[in-house]
Amino acid sequence: KSAVGSQRCPYTRNVVAMLRALFVSSLGLAGLSQADAVSLRAHQHASDELFTVSLRPSTREAYSPVSRNNVRPSQRHLSLLERSAALSREHSRQASLGAALNRMRAQSQRVHALQYFGEVYVGTPEQKFTVIFDTGSGHLMVPSVKCDSAACAKHKRFQANQSSTSTPIAWADEPMTAAADDTDRDTMVVNFAMGDAVGQYMRDKVCLGGDGGKFCAMADFVEMTEESDNPFKDAEWDGIVGLGQSVSDAAEFNIFGVLSTNSTPSMKMPVFAVYLGRNIEDEAEITFGGVRKERMASDLTWVPVYEEGYWQFQISDVLINGKTINICKKYGERQCQGVLDTGSSLMMGPENDLGMILKALSFANDTQINCTKEQKFPNLGFVIAGKTFEMEADDYMDRSQDGHDANMQSCWAHLMPVRDTGRGPIFVLGMPFLRAFYTAYDVKNKKIGVALASHKASTVHSKDVVVEPLVALRPGMDDSAGKPAASVDNKKKVAEAKKEGH
């Protein structure tokens, strides 16, 4: 029951090669105690507002929790990646790809951001943290002032003694029980792709939103007391907000679940929604309390969560240029299964199935081929709840002319085969899918909404919507030719937009 040393994550990945397959966040349902409600009374007013947080994209490595465990033995939900030792071998093999392919994927990262940042507020008075919103993990995690690791020193740290509403929590399975002292508490060990963290449980006021408005409630979270240098020391974010469907230690840890039922002000809908721009300079946001119709180019199609845990749903068919390739029938009533993952920069699927898809997309048995400038690639479609959601070639692949003659290019698909995850064959629909489609997540009714994303500039907002200008960042790194390139951002543009009141 005392703190333990960190555990080294078994997965080694080549970040520049975009071969990270990480999962995201956590939702759940929870209630507030009478005492907690009293602590929030000063902030209470009736409202049906919709709050939107702008996300800041970056092409640095995308880190999300891979697994976790507590010092006290108990059965816990782990990341899909943790459930398959075979994935470690697969990633090691993929990481050995040549430097040329690495540079090409680095160029892809410049086009498509790998991280999207927002803010979360903890404590009374509020302490603001920059966080990744992760639909494949289940906890809010922020650095603690008790952490003396070099990685923690470079980030905002939670100061429990500066919050009038904070309470240390003793046990994960007793999330409302205050700890008598620091020596008699559960300790969580969280594994990341290239490092780890150790934390303890806390309870305090947590708010999601921005300057235009916030949803607040008392909730449990993890304050990290140890952090490895990698990935934390040079990270542009402080922590992670888990938004998974049902993967937390207890309902009180499901931040959005708590807010959806007990927030001040109250939410109109128990829904959050994700919009990602196509490019670094484009807007990106996460919306709490409903959806934004101006971000959609079609109506939402709703599909129920098929299996509790992650945002998992049925895919009845996969189409190439509108024609079936018959890969879902063999799974019977279960059909194909998909998971929406804001923490993955790629789309992934079962090895055999993805091999058929790559071949049908003219990629033979590899994700990278030589192609001509004139070569056309087919559309890739997924049938969800009876409706086809079709991705054009530019949605699932990129091109580069580096190292080729005038008419030749290298083409690579943002697809990666994976072995069994422990939950049966699953398609992981990461950022390429999420850039093409607007997605909504209903925690109460356990369903997922998908619509074609509208990538037009959003200039008109309803009175219930709060939108903050997006700060986009492309850190300096080697370009596709292996030469150093300066960092690029749109901070000046954002500052001008704020000054003009947009």
3D architecture notes:
With 502 residues, the protein is α+β, with helices and mostly antiparallel strands. It contains ten helices and 34 strands. The strands form seven sheets. A seven-stranded mixed sheet has the order 15-29-28-13-14-1-30. Strand 24 (397-400) and strand 25 form a beta hairpin. The longest helix has 13 residues, at 99-111. It is globular, with a radius of gyration of 22 Å. It starts with 33 loop residues before the first helix and ends with a helix. The relative contact order is 0.19.
Largest sheet: 7 strands, mixed
- What is the terminal separation in angstroms? 51 Å
Query: How large is the radius of gyration?
Result: 22 Å
**Which strands sit side by side, in order, in the main sheet?**
15-29-28-13-14-1-30
- Estimate the mean pLDDT confidence: 76
Helix percent band: 10-25%
Q: Helix segment count?
A: 10
The low-pLDDT segments are: 1-47, 72-111, 465-470
Shape: globular
Question: How many strands appear in the DSSP assignment?
Answer: 34
> Structural class from helices and strands?
alpha+beta
Strand content: 25-35%
